[in-house]
Design a protein that fits this description.
Layout: E1 3-7, H1 20-32, E2 41-45, E3 60-63, H2 71-89, E4 93-96, E5 109-113, H3 117-120, H4 127-143, E6 146-149, H5 152-162, E7 169-171, H6 186-196, E8 203-206, H7 215-227, E9 234-237, H8 247-253, E10 260-264, H9 268-277, E11 280-283, H10 292-299, E12 304-307, H11 312-316, E13 321-323, H12 328-340, H13 342-356, H14 361-375
Parallel strand pairs: 1-2, 1-4, 2-3, 4-5, 5-6, 6-7, 8-9, 8-11, 9-10, 11-12, 12-13
Helix pairs in contact: 1-14, 7-12, 10-13
């Protein structure tokens, strides 16, 4: 058995491409090392990837010299070069980890769908990207042997929007990295606060700055919260996504230039400190296929206020506060209440840590391995568990 993994979207650079899908690829490959022998797995990576990364050391790599970090080049490579390589290598199964597989394939495929935001939030995408994702994802969904949805909400979207037979869909929840946990070293956290000029209390948003994350509503809610006596500043952390140019003008319009800080992209090894330092994590996204940031914040023991839409209730459960992302006044009230109520924050922190323990990459890898088994129509794949 030979399985190929299209890891062209894997990135370890200091920018937004290193967020959600790249993290999913990295953690999935790390987890699969426990279940598959190295000679059965091949990963296709881009020219800018660190080939000695832990996720890649155990398997065979094929690195393209084409600039596949450019979307158009990657699309052409996936549809033309990849199918030829799969046939030449005698691949039995391809895992496409982001919506689209080659239209012409010499083998079955498993395809991961992280969300269907390009259907549900068309204004959040430029026209070319929206047309590409809508067209190719629909064709891919019809042809793939198995589909992986990262939440039940995404599974339901696949059924209702793309008319996929639900029996072909495997729900595989993402995990949370072990590095995301309460910071035990109080001096390290105090030093981080001093270096970043952070006060004892602040509200944190961490994620790509793009339209569907609903930053304008968060800003308006925060402005209303300040009118109700909230003094803790708001920190917006994350790489710049598409069409984020409205953020600074709105901050100025609301008169919050000194109260809102934009700190830019936060490297992975620094994110845990931001979560731990924050008094509250606010994530009023209008749509998420899963929601890594809320899970990571909960794992760190940071109280979470999140949207009550899409997959976020599945992740948060009863361990956080869920609000309507289209109601800034309601969000403002919750921000003020949670920041000012020490007992409530302690209870949310405790429940959040317990909730986060249910999401592990080991389980995600096991479920992905099981999806491969179903795609190949095998009664059982005996996992090669590595200690």
């Amino acid at each position: 058995m030979r399985i190929a993994f299209n890891a062209q979207l894997l990135s370890y650079g200091q920018w937004y491409r290193s967020a959600g899908i790249s993290r999913y690829i990295d953690r999935t490959l790390v987890g699969l090392a426990r279940f598959l022998p190295s000679d059965s797995m091949i990963a296709f990576v881009g020219p800018d990837v660190l080939v000695d990364a832990p996720a890649l050391r155990w398997l065979r790599l094929i690195q393209t010299h084409l600039p596949t970090y450019r979307p158009l080049v990657r699309i052409v490579w996936e549809q033309t070069v990849l199918p030829v390589a799969l046939r030449r290598l005698g691949i039995d199964l391809l895992h496409a980890p982001a919506y689209v597989a080659p239209l012409v394939l010499p083998c079955p495929s498993v395809v991961t769908f992280h969300d269907l935001s390009f259907y549900l939030l068309p204004d959040a995408f430029n026209r070319q990207n929206r047309i590409y994702l809508r067209t190719l994802s629909r064709l891919t969904a019809k042809r793939a042997r198995r589909l992986i949805a990262v939440s039940e909400a995404t599974r339901q979207d696949l059924v209702h929007l793309l008319d996929v037979d639900p029996t072909r869909i495997d729900v595989v929840y993402n995990g949370v990295d072990e590095r995301f946990r309460p910071e035990a070293n109080s001096e390290r956290l105090a030093r981080f606060r001093r270096e970043r000029g952070l006060p004892e209390q602040f509200i944190l948003y961490l994620g790509t700055l793009e339209p569907r994350k609903n930053i304008p509503t968060l800003l308006r809610a925060y402005a209303a919260a300040r009118q109700r006596g909230l003094t803790a500043p708001l920190v917006l952390a994350g790489g710049r996504g598409w069409r984020d140019q409205t953020i600074e003008p709105l901050i100025e319009e609301l008169g919050m230039t000194g109260a809102v800080r934009l700190v830019g992209f936060v490297p992975m090894d620094e994110q845990v400190l931001w979560y731990n330092a924050a008094t509250l994590f606010a994530f009023p996204s209008r749509y998420e296929g899963f929601g890594f940031p809320v899970l990571e914040a909960m794992a760190c023991g940071t109280p979470v206020v999140a949207s009550n839409r899409s997959a976020l209730p599945e992740v948060v459960g009863d361990a956080g506060v869920l609000v309507d992302p289209d109601e800034p006044e309601a969000l403002a009230e919750v921000l003020v209440s949670v920041v000012h109520d020490d007992a409530w924050r302690e209870d949310l922190a405790r429940r959040g840590r317990q909730r986060a323990e249910q999401f592990t990459w080991d389980e995600a890898a096991r479920a992905t391995f099981e999806s491969y088994r179903r795609a190949l129509d095998l009664p059982r794949l005996t996992p090669t568990i590595k200690k």
